[in-house]
Amino acid sequence: MRNLIDTTSLEIQEIEYILESAKKFKHYKPSQLLQDKLIITLFFENSTRTRSSFEVAAKRLGASIVHLDPEKSSSSKGESIEDTFTNLCAMNPDAVIIRHASNTVAIELSDMNLTSVINAGSGNTAHPSQALLDLFTMKEHFGDVRGKKIAIVGDIVNSRVASSGIKLFTRMGMEVILVAPNSFMPQDTLLERYEDLKDVIDKVDVIMSLRAQLERHKKPIFENYEEYASKYCITKERLKDKDILLLHPGPVMRNIDIDDEMLKDSRCKVLEQVSNGVFIRMAILKFLLLES
Length: 292
Ligand code: CP
Known about the structure:
globular, alpha/beta, about 35% helix, four-stranded parallel beta sheet, single chain, about 15% strand, binds phosphoric acid mono(formamide)ester
């Protein structure tokens, strides 16, 4: 039984294998490889992309998928997450895909060794399927990402996308630099840090813009996000005609993270990331449930 809590548990050749499988799924009609498998999704935080993408991926491979809505579950009657999980596992699923605000719940549940646990986002620490789909999108564009420079821009300290991305991209030979106001910048990093976007725009191959994670702010950090946008919003005026790939995990705060015009620009791969997410998650499910 294999879990996916973060990409650090994957060997480089396993990462390459998942990317290769995703590429095949993108170009060939999917088969019913998982037709005897049962997968449960358990999302304690809201999601548009990750949940639907995992569910579409499972269905494309012929798996049965059941979603338990925590708000309508017996969690609301005081049942602990461990008991909820144990009871779901008594139904013999092949995997439980979980998102939780806690940094450690997915690890704790995987340590129970009852089923394969797939982390669909934990606190601000890990979002492995997002990191893999971002890497896949960059590899599709560049071929080899080794030596490419990516600037992660925005609320980095509160972002699990940034946490998983930094670990995966550096491991794959990319150079990661961080651009953020001080309140959004991790202080315990060895990566190059910048406060001003204009200082990096001539140096990078990729910009990954991130949303302010308002749900994780204990108190409002900016009174006015227009002021933040005036410094960090990705616009055509800022990018000009530079050959820079623009990524964002979503949801995009329009005209704060990226402006309307730039969202329509061919350099912006936000919807391509969403499409690629399905193929990556098909590859993850195949790898974990059939090949590990
Ligand atoms: N990228 C991402 O995690 O989006 P959702 O929160 O909509 O799943």
